[in-house]
Amino acid sequence: xxxxxxxxxxxxxxxxxxxxSKIFCPCPTEFNxxxxxxxxxxxxxxxxxxxxxxxxxxxxxxxxxxxxHCTINEKIYFERKNYFYPDLxxxxxxxxxxxxLGENGHLELxxxxxxxxxxxxLEEDAxxxxxxxxxxxxxxxxxxxxxxxxxSYPDMNSPQEAWEYLQMLKLIIxxxxxxxxxxxxxxxxxxxxxxxxxxxxxxLGTKIELKNMNSFKGVKDALVFEEKRxxxxxxxxxxxxxxxxLWDEVKGKTVTMRTKEEAHDYRYxxxxxxxxxxxxASMITEQRQYVPELPLARTKRxxxxxxxxEKDVEVLISHRWSADFFEQSSVHFPHFKQIANWxxxxxxxxxxxxxxxxxxxxMSPGEFAKLVRYFSEGTLNNITAKKVLTEALTTGVDxxxxxxEKSLIQVSDESELDGYVSDAVAEHPKxxxxxxxxxxxALMFLVGSVMKKTKGKANPKIVREMIEKKIQQ
Length: 473
Ligand SMILES: [Zn+2]
Known about the structure:
A hairpin with a 4-residue loop joins strand 8 (128-131) and strand 9 (136-139). The chain is elongated. It is α+β, with helices and mostly antiparallel strands. A nine-stranded mixed sheet has the order 2-6-7-10-1-11-12-13-14, with helices on one face. It folds into three domains: 5-287, no CATH class; 293-405, no CATH class; 414-472, Arc Repressor Mutant, subunit A (Orthogonal Bundle), CATH 1.10.10.410. The protein contains 15 helices and 16 strands. The chain has helices at residues 55-67, 159-175, 216-235, 281-288, 295-306, 310-317, 320-332, 336-352, 365-377, 382-395, 399-405, 414-427, 429-436, 440-453, 460-472; strands at 5-15, 71-72, 75-76, 79-82, 92-95, 102-108, 114-124, 128-131, 136-139, 146-152, 188-198, 208-213, 243-248, 253-259, 269-270, 277-278. It binds zinc ion. Zinc ion binds next to loops. Residues 22, 25, 27, 39-40, 42-43, 144 line the site of zinc ion.
């Protein structure tokens, strides 16, 4: 019988918390600034300079540790991780090693499985190398940007589970407003380690580290490839050697980067230019206030409390603002399904086209609830309601004012509509004939014609009934 194996995966995630300035100097963290314009003697590691710890970075790290249920160490200190790299001008990175800020936490997946978190610590980022055909350039703007390192226990047993962990971690960090986690900007990066062991074995197999994955899909694909590669080798009776491999997205495979023999000895030692820092009880209490109900708990509550489908809730919860907006709107018009539909449909559709997304919309939840109510009461039809929504979202003008100014109230009065209906029927004899022959699409065409004549204000249901009546006469 073929041997069966258990896959063991752990993830190391780096997140850039949204501070305005770097972790040990006042240089801005702005993305995409011209190369080497956000640098100073501190982040460039000039002799004699002294780092000053950014309190905001610590607060956001405390918040993240709390959201991941970590124990927070009251006293923390930084250490130097020594290595040379062209984009690391100090030749060491200030990081945390022996005593991280947060330890022994967990993250719960939607199926209920808890993935352990070994540590959450703070460190500084390196710069960026830009490789040209005949040279390499270095940009130090990112040097000294704060990073949160979040390391999981090897508790995941499939690439799919690793992917779910990443999705949930990203969502939590977005919910607590620590980072946008925008991977394209490098605000979230992930390395993985994976090993296989025979089913039932207690010892872990040989660990392979994976780097260079630029998306969650990349992480999953790399793990799927590596799981298969390792299984095949083990089935052939071969042994694996510990190494770091790079994911080649184009070729869809992992390749050796360095073996264990080449591994660095970083010679960590306490950073002599920084004192140790106390994480006070008041800072923890303050940061706890910024940890809201987390996405998983909120999902369960939305299903129980509002009777929404899992699918709808998944969309609402996928951004904190849409979940918040749903709850705030529902207070004004407690028709939960309708509010949800208008958020998931038109609202998201419109705001997705905004360059700044939802953050700059000018409509209050109360106004939004009123719009949904007007639609459900028949004051506005689908077309005019969307028109009003678009306008209110961009201008912030009250919807009653928009409706009045553009006289958009739905026309359901048959005497008002009769002329338009008669015209449409008279103008399109071919469609009338088609409809009589049983082509139901022809009726939709005639309804559309009336909608056009009334600038979208007619009640399409009434129009449809009127046309049917007229044709059958
Ligand atoms: Zn600086």
